[in-house]
Specification:
The complex is a heterodimer.
Chain A: E1 4-7, E2 10-13, E3 18-25, E4 31-37, E5 44-50, E6 53-57, E7 64-70, E8 73-79, E9 87-94, E10 105-106, E11 110-114
Parallel strand pairs in A: 2-11
Antiparallel strand pairs in A: 1-3, 3-8, 4-5, 4-9, 5-6, 7-8, 9-10, 9-11
Chain B: E1 4-6, E2 11-14, E3 19-25, E4 32-38, E5 44-50, E6 55-57, E7 60-65, E8 70-75, E9 84-91, E10 100-101, E11 105-110
Parallel strand pairs in B: 2-11
Antiparallel strand pairs in B: 1-3, 3-8, 4-5, 4-9, 6-7, 7-8, 9-10, 9-11
C-alpha cells in the first residue's frame, strides 16, 4: 500500500450506532489530520496530531473522538451522531518540521451517511 | 466575511481556452498560499504553491497580491482533463500545518 489509505470508503449508520473510521499513512510522516467536507462548504479541519499528540481540536463536538496510537495510524470514533454529520471525512498526513509548510497528502475519504 | 472566498462556478469553457480563477482571503497576516485540485469523488491534491513573485508550472500560472489579499490561478490551453474543482488554500501567521480552504471553483472543460 502506498500513500494514505482510509477504511471504510462508505459507511451508513444510525444515530445510536458506534463506529470507527481508520486512516493509515505509508509515507513516513509525523503529522496526521481529520477533515470534514460537506456539500457546498469548504473543508473543515477537525483534529491535528503531531508526533502522536493532539495539537488542534477545532471545537468539534464530543461525539467525534480521535485516536492516534502511532504516527502511521489515526482513528475517528463516532457515537450518537446526527444526520447533519453526514459528510465526506478526509484524513491527511504531512511531515511537520521547521518549514513554514509541508504538503499534506490526503486519503480517498470515507463517505458517511447518518440516518 | 469568509476566511477564504471563491466563486463556486461552474466555469464551462471550450478546450483550448484560457481561464482564470480568483480567490480572496480575509486575514492579512496569512503566510502561505496554495492551489489544490479535487477531482469528482476524489481527494484534494496539491496543484501548486503561490509566491509573491508569481510562479508558473507548464500551463498553470499562480499569482499573489498581498495588498489586495487575492490569489489567482490562470490555466492556458485548457484540456478536458483539467475539469475539476480548484481549491484556494491559505495558512495563518506562523505557518505550520493548519490549512484554511475555500469552497472551491468548479471548472468544466468541454469539446
Amino acid at each position: 500500500e502506498t500513500g494514505v489509505t482510509q477504511t471504510p470508503r462508505h459507511l451508513v449508520m444510525g444515530m445510536t450506532n458506534k463506529k470507527s473510521l481508520k486512516c493509515e499513512q505509508h509515507l513516513g510522516h509525523n503529522a496526521m489530520y481529520w477533515y470534514k467536507q460537506s456539500a457546498k462548504k469548504p473543508l473543515e479541519l477537525m483534529f491535528v496530531y503531531s508526533l502522536e499528540e493532539r495539537v488542534e481540536n477545532n471545537s468539534v463536538p464530543s461525539r467525534f473522538s480521535p485516536e492516534c496510537p502511532n504516527s502511521s495510524h489515526l482513528f475517528l470514533h463516532l457515537h450518537t451522531l446526527q444526520p447533519e454529520d453526514s459528510a465526506l471525512y478526509l484524513c491527511a498526513s504531512s511531515q511537520a518540521g521547521d518549514r513554514a509548510y509541508n504538503e499534506q497528502f490526503f486519503g480517498p475519504g470515507t463517505r458517511l451517511t447518518v440516518l | 466575511r469568509k476566511e477564504v472566498e471563491q466563486d463556486p462556478g461552474p466555469f464551462n469553457v471550450p478546450e483550448g481556452a484560457t481561464v482564470a480563477f480568483n480567490c480572496t482571503y480575509s486575514n492579512s497576516a496569512s503566510q502561505s498560499f496554495f492551489w489544490y485540485r479535487q477531482d469528482c469523488r476524489k481527494e484534494p491534491k496539491l496543484l501548486m504553491s503561490v509566491y509573491s513573485s508569481g510562479n508558473e508550472d507548464g500551463r498553470f500560472t499562480a499569482q499573489l497580491n498581498r495588498a489586495s489579499q487575492y490569489i489567482s490561478l490562470l490555466i492556458r490551453d485548457s484540456k478536458l482533463s483539467d475539469s475539476a474543482t480548484y481549491l484556494c488554500v491559505v495558512t495563518p501567521t506562523g505557518g505550520g500545518n493548519k490549512l484554511t480552504f475555500g469552497t472551491g471553483t468548479q471548472l468544466k472543460v468541454e469539446l
